[in-house]
Amino acid sequence: MSQYIHQLADWPHFRWDQEELSTPLAEVRLRQGRLIGRMESLGFSQRDEAVLQTLTDDVVKSSEIEGEILNSDQVRSSIARRLGMDIAGLLPSDRRVDGVVQMILEATQNFAQPLTKERLCGWHTALFPDRSSNIRVGAWRDDAKGSMQVVSGAIGRERVHYEAPAANRLESELAAFLDWANRTGDIDPVLRAAKAHLWFVTIHPFDDGNGRIARAIADWALARSENSSRRYYSMSTQIRRERKKYYNALELAQKGTLDITNWMQWFLGCLTRAIAGTEASLATVFLKDRFWKTHVQLAFNERQRSMLNKLLDRTFEGKLTSTKWAQLAKCSQDTAHRDIVELMKHDILARDTAGGRSTSYSLARGDGYLNS
């Protein structure tokens, strides 16, 4: 009896119950459409902000799944530079961060380009910029150190979760995978992303980095499903939240049959939760959009616009007082007071309950933009 699916006689002829998947697939497609529609209603700068936040989360969380911690500020700066975004406070980023960012952006920005051996090896090279490492960089593994096994546990009590195909099978295995991955029209593009992820993980062609590249392939396929390079949700962020279930789902799929209905169901459920989670992670973006659309007819000065953005971003520390306004806006106390009074007249700011020397102000809650 075969132990792993790549050892089965009908490998790699995956199958699944289309009727069983019809409802969760329809829900994913509905959520995709709603989110894209909502994001496209935003201004260019807000869409860029959302893309930057989503891609930053995607890069950081995909690495965290493998136990590698990246500096999120460096990741954000690296993405902003590569996308030509003009943001304040850019930090220098190290080669490791730049490499992961390069891989994710190459996968999603060039979603219309076919997946090839050269692209995959280029992603692997970007992931491992240090050529002095003890792994084969930018090339398939050769099994010189033995068969490729995914194990856990202490030495002597290891548990083998999975054993990949032998290295001498890789060229033919990858050729079959890439031929299928670049087709269109045979199955729903979201199901293609789920199948591609599992198929690539099963082949496990590199010494290291297979999980991150498999998730990049899924991102590439999902971008194709939307015909858009703009990423508004992060599958990797949700997988990080469900890491144990993710690995369990992969392991069960490797040791089962080529009926991958259960894997497809898990993937669709995770994707649904990822898209739903975007509403929370991008709440500030939506809040700011509602605010400025509500008050589009008002003429704010630059001090007011800057201070309101700080409040909307929820990055303002402590209570807003006229003294703090004057300090941050670099203006006189009288000017700060006039700015605040004008905003109170338009019911944008409201005086907090405490008065006297401790008078402070907050965004008014009479408008719908705060009900998020």
Spell out the key features of this protein:
single chain, 372 residues, mainly alpha, Fic-like fold, Arc Repressor Mutant, subunit A, 2 domains, two-stranded antiparallel sheet, 15 helices, elongated
Q: How many DSSP helices?
A: 15
| Strand composition percent | under 5%
Q: How many domains, as an integer?
A: 2
Report the average pLDDT across residues: 90
**N-to-C SSE series?**
HHHHHEEHHHHHHHHHHEE
Q: In whole angstroms, how far apart are the ends?
A: 55 Å
Spatial extent as radius of gyration: 25 Å
Number of strands: 4
SS class: mainly alpha
- Which CATH first-tier class of the largest domain would you pick? Mainly Alpha
Percent of residues in helical segments? 55-70%
Shape: elongated
Give the CATH architecture of the largest domain.
Orthogonal Bundle
Sheet bearing the most strands, described?
Answer: 2 strands, antiparallel
Folded structure, characterized:
With 372 residues, this protein is mainly alpha-helical. It folds into 2 domains: 277 residues, Orthogonal Bundle (Fic-like fold), CATH 1.10.3290.10; 86 residues, Arc Repressor Mutant, subunit A, CATH 1.10.10.10. Helix content is 57%, strand content 4%. The chain is built from 15 helices and 4 strands. A two-stranded antiparallel ribbon has the order 1-2. A two-stranded antiparallel sheet has the order 3-4. β1 and β2 form a beta hairpin. α2 crosses α9, α3 crosses α4 and α4 runs antiparallel to α5. It is elongated and about 80 Å long. The model has no long low-confidence stretch (mean pLDDT 90).
